[in-house]
Amino acid sequence: MPASPTATPEHIKDVNTRYHDAAAGSYDAKWGIDFGPVGQEQVAAKLCKALGTDDPPVLGDALEIGAGTGYFSLNLATQGLIGNLTATDISPGMLASLSETAERLDVSVTTVVSEAESLPFEDESFDVVMGHAVLHHIPDLDQAFSEFFRVLRPGGVIVFCGEPSRYGDRLAAVPKRVGSFVAPVWRKAVSAERLVHTPEELCGEEHGLEPEVDVHAFVPADLRAIPPRAGFEETAVNGEELVANVWGWGMRSMESSAVPETIPMRWRNFAFRSYIAFQKVDVAVLEPYLPAELFYNLLLSARKPA
Ligand SMILES: C[S@@+](CC[C@H](N)C(=O)[O-])C[C@H]1O[C@@H](n2cnc3c(N)ncnc32)[C@H](O)[C@@H]1O
Question: pTM score, two decimals?
């Protein structure tokens, strides 16, 4: 559910900060974020798809917007695809988690708490500005893209992946409902305990704020129109993940109904592997043939004139 149309930009940013601060500790587990070969392969594939290249390029001085716990940029950095990494986010909690993971992975990164619409960097400081699953949280996208343009060097690129499409967002409601419906049977089958939230938990930061953090679900044509308004050229929008997403949302809905520690590891492995298998089906069979609007995730790239 998106934020109320009457919510002010300040309110949306405040809610995003508090929600993601509260979510940071369990974020990687909730979303099955991997910092090994699987995660690396996923982000390299997204980068190639967004830029229309066969092999992932080395990105030089890279700025990530809404970096969260580091899924996108740390997985690129561990493959040697980033020269210098600066990770920003509106949530200090998410960046603290990113720093811990970067230390564990031995990745050098500068973290800066900042919001996308007002970046604390000099003009022409970066070769690439990138992000994953962040644009749909930003209230004023024209202002944010003006900032991306300002801090990029001439010839630099923007790459944003994992943005929800409007159709995909609606489609995801179906497996979410089905997942919740079959959850009691699933819990019984895998001997997982039902998760009962106390009233305090339901009113707490994470649960209470979740419906308010999203501002946009995109139609590709609308997303494609934003970069040129800021001065970018060579704008491209692609789509990815259809069956993988339907499957993934169904799995997550069932799993979120159980006490996490009681979900058997065998099930977790199955859920993860089957999701990856469906991603491969999407890549091989659907993505080359269907229009971007049918997919759940949109990928955007554009270039600042040289
Ligand atoms: C869905 S999470 C994605 C995190 C990470 N990029 C990933 O793919 O796992 C969105 C992130 O954007 C951040 N965010 C939300 N609004 C923002 C804003 N206006 N400026 C910068 N970051 C923002 C949130 O704090 C959160 O970490």
Answer: 0.90
Alpha-carbon distance 29 to 248, whole Å? 14
Length of the chain: 306
Nearest CA to ligand 1 atom 10: 134
**Closest atom of ligand 1 relative to the 91 alpha carbon:** 25
Which tokens is 110 given? 């500068």
The alpha carbon of 94 and the centre of ligand 1 are apart by a number of angstroms equal to 8
Question: Hey, which of 30, 73, 90, 129 would you mutate to test ligand 1's pocket, going by the most ligand atoms within 8 Å of its Cβ?
Answer: 90
Count Cβ atoms below 10 Å from residue 270 Cβ, excluding itself.
13
Q: Report how far residue 144's alpha carbon sits from residue 152's, in angstroms, rounded to the nearest whole number.
A: 13
Tokens of residue 93, six digits: 């909690």
Residue with CA nearest ligand 1 atom 12:
66
Q: What is the pLDDT of residues 233-257, one digit of tens each?
A: 999 999 999 999 899 989 989 998 9
Residue 236 backbone class (left: φ over 0; alpha: ψ -120 to 50; beta: rest): beta
Residue 190 pLDDT > 90: yes
Calpha distance 223→230 (Å, rounded): 12
Task: Tell me how far apart the alpha carbons of residues 114 and 161 are, in angstroms, rounded to a whole number.
Answer: 20
**Cβ-contact 91, 20 below 8 angstroms:** yes
In order of their start, the domains of the chain are 9-164+199-240+291-303 (3.40.50.150)
